[in-house]
Amino acid sequence: MNKPKILFFDIESAGVNALKSDLGFVIMIGYKWAHEKETKIDVIHRRDLRHFDDKELLTRFSKRFEKADICVAHFGSVFDRRFIQGRLLINKLSPIPPTRMRDTCMIARSVANFSSNRLKHLAKILNLKNQKLDNNWPIAWFKVMQGDMEHLRALADYCKGDVLALEELYNRLLPFDNAHPRIYVDRLVCGKCGSKVHYRGIAFVNNNQYRRYQCVKGHWGRETNKVKI
Questions:
Q1: Per-residue model confidence (pLDDT) at position 130
Q2: What is the pTM assigned to this prediction?
Q3: Integer Cα distance of 96 and 65 in angstroms
Q4: How does strand 24-33 pair with strand 100-103?
């Protein structure tokens, strides 16, 4: 089995209430595959922007989303995926698959007690190389709804920055994400990152014991075969 395809994505929405699927619409989706270097932004066409019509944009992204084995988004389980699903319903399109999601906001919330779990704050306190860019909210969004393509391009740069910060945050949080699925089937390497492991101690599960290990990147795990006592 090849390594699963991991998709990082972030949506930008606009409308009367850009947080609700029935009061807003998608104007762009930034995305990046873990195995690729380039971050891409899929932007709504100008003709569709005039009519607040995101059907074609969602159709294009749905085809990409279907190829993902794991998807990653910040606050994506609460906002991005649900907003997309709402827009798909309204546009009479098929749902995106129930792909396993890693939500970096929820991971950070579950493993630490930071004062804020917003992407901008986490990028700052963790000193990430890719910092979340500033934006001209809400003026830029109003200008976009008026058909201003210059502001739309500026938002595309902002969205790209979010995706880059998202990927770096995911990699930083990965050693702490105990719920992350195993993506390497080789039991001689770490299931999360594929690096070498060192066995350290025993994990006790009910009345059973398992050899515990830590990989060179810090991830902890355990074998599936019980230690014979």
A1: 92
A2: 0.90
A3: 7
A4: unpaired
Q: Which two tokens stand for residue 226?
A: 């019980």
Domains and CATH numbers, the chain: 6-176 (3.30.420.10), 182-229 (no CATH)
Q: Mean pLDDT throughout 111-138?
A: 91
Does the pLDDT of residue 168 top 70, yes or no? yes
Per-residue pLDDT of 26-35, as tens digits, reads 999 999 999 9
Poorest-pLDDT segment among 90-104, 113-127, 155-169, 187-201: 187-201
Say how far apart CA 130 and CA 123 lie, in whole Å: 7
DSSP-assigned letters across all residues of the chain: -PPPPEEEEEEEEEETTTTSTTTEEEEEEEEEETT-S--EEEE--HHHHHTT--HHHHHHHHHHHTT-SEEEETTTTTTHHHHHHHHHHHTT-PPPP--EEEEHHHHHHHH---S---HHHHHHHTT-SSPPPP--TTHHHHHHHTT-HHHHHHHHHHHHHHHHHHHHHHHHHGGG-TTPPP----TTB-TTT--BEEEEEEEEETTEEEEEEEETTS-EEE-SSPPP-
C-beta separation of 43 from 28 below 8 A: yes
The C-alpha torsion from 63 through 64 and 66 to 72, rounded to 10°, is -150
pLDDT tens per residue across span 189-224: 888 888 899 999 999 998 899 999 999 999 998 888
Q: Which amino acid is at 79?
A: F
CA distance 73 to 65: 12
- Output the pLDDT for position 7: 98
